[in-house]
Amino acid sequence: RCQSEVKGQFKYFFVFDSPGIPYKQLTVGVPKEIFQNERRVALSPAGVQALIKQGFNVVVESGAGEPSKFPDEQYTQAGAAIKDVKDVLASDLLVKVRAPTFNPALGIHEVDLMKDASTLVSFIYPAQNPELMDMLSKKKTTVLAMDQVPRVTIAQGYDALSSMANIAG
User: Fold this and answer.
1) Buried-state track 138-153, b at ≥16 Cβ within 10 A, e below 16
2) Quick one: CA dihedral 79, 84, 87, 89, positive or negative?
3) Rounded CA gap, 70 and 73, in Å?
4) What is the 3-class SS of 80-136, one letter each residue?
5) Does the keyword Transmembrane helix apply (predicted)?
6) I want to staple 27 with a disulfide (CB 3.0 to 4.6 A). Which of 57, 135, 145, 147 is the partner?
7) pLDDT digits 0-9 by tens, 82-121
8) 143 beta partners
């Protein structure tokens, strides 16, 4: 349901929808990055612990943190469940460093394993990946492209490129 109201020269839209889904019913998935030589992981055990405290369920693919020196045990201690790639990619909210790609070990594209109407937070580079965007659109995926976050002071807390530069420094 949507309602609009005009005040002066501006038109405001109010969306009245369902109250949403409680965090405890949402699963956040952290898959292992399969891009060649990628050593980062989308969430550290500390990040997992913060999400668990908020009430989310978190599943991490076995070995996802190994290249970043985060063993599975640290994720389980933080409250995450260790699952296989198919279970992780079927999460409600998926966090990845690199955009989804074809998984040669499984012989299928990661998008094909994603749940319909899920949310993806990742570096996507939409203008450079129209085929990927089309695949995600067909799955009705909500995409938060981290590379599209403005690099301004007010958004600096969400600017992953600055965060990576700080870590590298």
Assistant:
1) eeebebebbeebeeee
2) positive
3) 8
4) CEEECHHHHHCCCEEECCCCCCEECCCCEEHHHHCCCCCEEEECCCHHHCHHHHHHH
5) no
6) 57
7) 999 999 999 999 999 999 999 999 999 999 999 999 999 9
8) 120
